[in-house]
Design a protein that fits this description.
The chain has about 120 residues and is of the alpha/beta class. The protein is built from four helices and four strands; from the N terminus they run E-E-E-H-H-H-E-H.
Length: about 120
């Protein structure tokens, strides 16, 4: 099971390794901040997809489909496999600066990672 959180949330020991999966470093967070254990920007949605989506709830299913396609190729695929290896080795909390975590790419990533573990 993968946990989800905002990067600005307080760190708890139960969350395991905190992996920032945003393309851009969050404002107001230092590079050595303990709220980020690792950063995998390549696993984040492309700028084009992120702009198209705009966190509109009615477009989430289409966003998830397109994002899953992005994760199947190139650097995103490599980064996803790295993230999957981390999640398999230890508890992981995916973190983002996004306010609406439930409508973000974290939900899609967590579903894909959980599906891998169930397979």
């Amino acid at each position: 099971m993968v946990a989800l959180a905002r990067v600005y949330d307080e760190v708890t020991d139960a969350g395991g390794l905190r992996v920032l999966v945003d393309r851009l470093w969050p404002r107001g967070v230092r590079r050595d901040d303990p709220r980020v254990g690792q950063w995998l920007p390549e696993v984040a949605p492309s700028n084009e997809l992120r702009r198209w989506y705009g966190h509109r709830a009615e477009d989430f299913d289409e966003f998830a489909r397109r994002y899953t396609q992005e994760l199947a190729d190139g650097d995103a695929r490599t980064a996803f496999h790295r993230l999957a290896a981390l999640a398999h080795a230890e508890p992981v909390t995916l973190v983002t600066a996004t306010r609406e975590v439930d409508l973000s790419h974290l939900t899609v990533l967590a579903g894909l990672l959980d599906a891998r573990d169930d397979a």
